[in-house]
Amino acid sequence: MKITRKEKSKLILEGFITVGLIGLVYYAAFVILSRAISAFPGIIRSLWIFGDAIISIQSNRVISITPFFAFVLIIIAAIAIHWRLKRRYKQMQLNHVISELHYIAEGHYEHRIATDLSGDMKKVVDSIHVLVDSTVKAMEEERKIEQSKDELITNVSHDIRTPLTSIIGYLGLIEERRYQNEDELLKYTHTAYVKAKQMKVLVEDLFEYTRVRQTTTPLNLTEFDMVQLLEQLAADFELEAEKKGMQIEVVSKQEVILMEADTEKIVRVFNNLISNALNYGNDGQHVFIEVEKVGQEVVISVNNDGSPIPAQSLKQLFNRFYRVEESRSQETGGTGLGLAIAQSIIDLHGGSIYAKSDKHLTQFILHFPLTQPSQKD
């Protein structure tokens, strides 16, 4: 850390003052010793154990100091001067650090204090940099959270407003009796009913999403057979698959894979994934689920041979309200929360999920640990 010309001048002045003070101390000691010998020669000589190694005494007076003692005094003086100047230099460094801290506190968070320091001062500066970095990171995360909240409100408002407008419109027609016959009345009420159900699904998905996003959400852990669970889910979707002209099956290298997880939440994950495979892979013929135990985790792949997912969409699939199709129609795209909910549930279990897609196969690959750490109430 460079010091200013003014600070250098202060250090030089400090050096001269220190030399002067040490000289005065030495002179005062010399005078006191000389007078003590003159006043009490017998006592001083009886107590003096150094002989002529330090001072020369003649006729009860100190004549001079020996060269050896003069060298010792010079060394002591040099040490004292060095200590005092070093102490003052550290004070100047500290003032520089405090000044730059004030500069950083004014909002210049990218600024860094000079690092050509050593010892404790370097440790202090490094700690300050770590603190500033963590503060900036926390501020950035808070900004993203606020932005995320705004986007959430915007998306929810959009998705609720569309069916709500339809419901109000059709109920308004009924209220004003602007229908020709009972069939038209039933058509209006049916449309309002369908739109109300869409709103209900959105609200339920939104509630589930906000619930599973909380890291403190408790897991109701039970031990179960993942192969059996997947086979049961495949059987539940078999009728829907047949209607779409598709086949659904489970492929496992092991007959039984015991693991520990919250089965209710796990079922929600695979319901979302299998539904997506049937809805978006309906130009394909197969949906098959591969499951395998690998080490201390289970790896599951939900696959379909339908149309591939565009490469630019793969990284955004798990963003809330994201839909691959350009429109935000709930008839074709659902609420856009299913995969976000699935990812949050998997995160709660300490697992991971990612997607791959090409012209042959679209895969959603999940990794789950076989066991969960014990949860304290």
Verbal overview:
Strand 6 and strand 7 (297-304) form a beta hairpin. The protein folds into 3 domains: 5-114, no CATH class; 141-212, Signal transduction histidine kinase, dimerisation/phosphotransfer (DHp) domain (Helix Hairpins); 222-369, Heat Shock Protein 90 (2-Layer Sandwich). The chain is α+β, with helices and mostly antiparallel strands and 377 residues long. The protein is elongated, with a radius of gyration of 41 Å. The chain contains 11 helices and 9 strands.
Structural class: alpha+beta
- Main pleated-sheet profile: 5 strands, mixed
Low-confidence runs of at least 5 consecutive residues: 326-333
Q: Which CATH C-level class of the largest domain is it?
A: Alpha Beta
Order of helices and strands: HHEEHHHEHHEEHEEHHHEE
Topology:
Elements: H1 5-39, H2 41-47, E1 55-58, E2 61-65, H3 67-105, H4 119-175, H5 182-212, E3 222-225, H6 226-236, H7 238-243, E4 247-252, E5 258-261, H8 263-280, E6 286-294, E7 297-304, H9 311-314, H10 330-333, H11 338-348, E8 352-357, E9 362-369
Parallel strand pairs: 4-6
Antiparallel strand pairs: 1-2, 3-5, 6-7, 7-9, 8-9
What does this entry show, briefly?
It contains 11 helices and 9 strands. By secondary structure, the protein is of the alpha+beta class.
Give short descriptive properties of this protein.
377 residues, alpha+beta, Helix Hairpins, Heat Shock Protein 90, 5-stranded mixed sheet, two-stranded antiparallel sheet, 11 helices, 59% helix, 14% strand, HisK_dim/P_dom
